[in-house]
Each structure stands twice: as C-alpha cells, then as structure tokens.
Amino acid sequence: MADFSSKHCRPNLRLNVPKRSPCIDIPTLSSSSEGDLILDDVEKLQVLGHGNSGIVYQVRHKRTSYVHALKVVHAYFDPMTLRSVRREIDILRRTDSPNIVQFHGSFEAPSGDVGILLEHMDLGTLDTLLKNKGPFSESQVVAVARQVLAGLSYLHENKIVHRDIKPSNLLVNQNMEVKISDFGVSKVLSRTLDTCDSYVGTGAYMSPERFNPDSCGGNYNGYAADIWSLGLTLFELYVGRFPLLPAGQRPEWAALMCAICFNDPPALPESASDEFRSFMECCLKKESSERWTASQLLNHPFLSQQ
C-alpha cells in the first residue's frame, strides 16, 4: 500500500445510469434550475457511485478542463431529504479548509433533483482503500489522523459538528490527502454545548451517549461524539475490520448498542505502540467529558511519529 504523506439551463448533460442500476431514475436537469452551478459548463464522464437517494458522477468543467464530482440527490420534494441536502450545501459554503472536500457550486432542478459540484478525490474513500489494499500501517494511520483531526479542529472551531465520521465519509486522492465529506447530517451549533438529534449518522460509529441520550439529560457534546467516531475509524483502518463486533457479525442495532454502551472499548493488537494505545484511550473514553478535543489530539505524541 502506498505511503501517506503528512501534508496537509439547457441540459446538455445526459446523466445516464449504468444498465446494472435500472432502479435509479435518470436525473432531469432543467434550464430553469436554481443555484450557482451552470450545467452547460460541465459534461458527464462516468458514474462514481450511487445510493438510495442519488448518484455521484465524475464530470469535466468545459472551460477549465478540471475534473469534479457531481453529487445528484433525488430529493423529489421530500422534506427530510431536501432539508438534509440543503444543510450540506450551506455547511460546505461556510468551510474553507484543505482538510474539507471543496465545494464548487450547486443547483436545484424543477424535477426535485439537487446537485452539488465538489472536488474530485480520485482514490475514493478510505473504506474503499481499506477493502482494496488491506489494513493500514501505524504510520499511515498517523497521516490519516493528522489530516482528519485538522479538519475536525477547523469544523469544531466554527461550531460545526459532523455527526457521521467513518471511513466511507473520508475521501482520499492520489497525493494521499484525506478530506472530510458528506455533511448531510451535520449541524451548526449556537454554543459550545447544544442539543442535537441523537439518532442521526451511522449507528456503528455512534458514541455511547448518542445511544443513550437520557444519560446526559438529552444534551451532549457533539464535538466529543465526533472524536469517538474518529477513534473507531482509525482503529478500523489499523485492524482491517470494524472493531466493536466479532469478525463477520452483522452490525444489528441491538448488538451495536450492547457493544458501544456496555462493553469496554476495544484493545489494540500487541503490535501497536504505546503512543497509539494512549491516543485510542483519549478518543474512546466512555464518558464524553473525558475525551480529548480535536485540538488537544493534534498535539498528542502519537502524531509526532514519522
């Protein structure tokens, strides 16, 4: 596996879905689309991926020849989906960090489709890299941790909690730059501690207090919840699988709740350094108030390794 560095309208766009995915509708992009994205300026190259609510395309900007990712969400005026994608656009507009995927524009079409033009990260996600290349070395985990923590520190300083940090939401490019993406369930807080919806994001990476919000009076530190998710993510990169359940066990809700809320945090293999173990302990404290912040973790001895 390659080493990680530590550095920081008129629709002429036919977005055809591959034949293997006939269940996903082809977006209809109208010349009356609203937003700052000019659709005539981009051409579709290929499908990068798809999910229940939309598709991600690789597109080329005709004037600049730059390649971007175009995320098309099929909102169809569904209030929850529309609110989620508009929240993502709003947060992306606010951010300006080398550790956050870059936003280049958006549109809302009369069909109900919403598009977001983003920086193209050509190696995909850390989840994909893990599946294709296998577990990361400790030095590679260090490089990922530095970059994601820099992004989280920036977000948290700007009172933004991500709420869905996991390998599939961390993008990587050929330069091994790692950037945070997918802000659909993120939230801008009005103060340091605020009330957030507990059951948003991916259950497997939720912190204990999010499974049991009554334990903290319905209020919890969303920043600390991001740190827990990051800890599990880095742990998974190192051991090659989700660390809270036995290999092969399905991440069902009841099993996850027991593992997260009642079991001790997982222990790293003997091959891990003392600094790595200490770092994990700082991330995976059951009590959220005891977890280190992103800015504190950036100064942890684990990240000083080369």
TrEMBL record:
E.C. numbers: 2.7.12.2
SMART domains: S_TKc
Keywords from the named record: ATP-binding, Kinase, Nucleotide-binding, Phosphoprotein, Serine/threonine-protein kinase, Transferase
Catalytic activity: L-seryl-[protein] + ATP = O-phospho-L-seryl-[protein] + ADP + H(+); L-tyrosyl-[protein] + ATP = O-phospho-L-tyrosyl-[protein] + ADP + H(+); L-threonyl-[protein] + ATP = O-phospho-L-threonyl-[protein] + ADP + H(+)
InterPro entries in UniProt: Kinase-like_dom_sf (IPR011009), Prot_kinase_dom (IPR000719), Ser/Thr_kinase_AS (IPR008271)
Signal sequence bounds: none
Any single GO BP term: response to stress
Pfam families with a match to the protein in the record: Pkinase
Keyword Phosphoprotein: yes
Domain Protein kinase: 42-303
GO molecular function: ATP binding; MAP kinase kinase activity; protein serine/threonine kinase activity
Similarity remark: Belongs to the protein kinase superfamily. STE Ser/Thr protein kinase family. MAP kinase kinase subfamily.
Name of protein: mitogen-activated protein kinase kinase
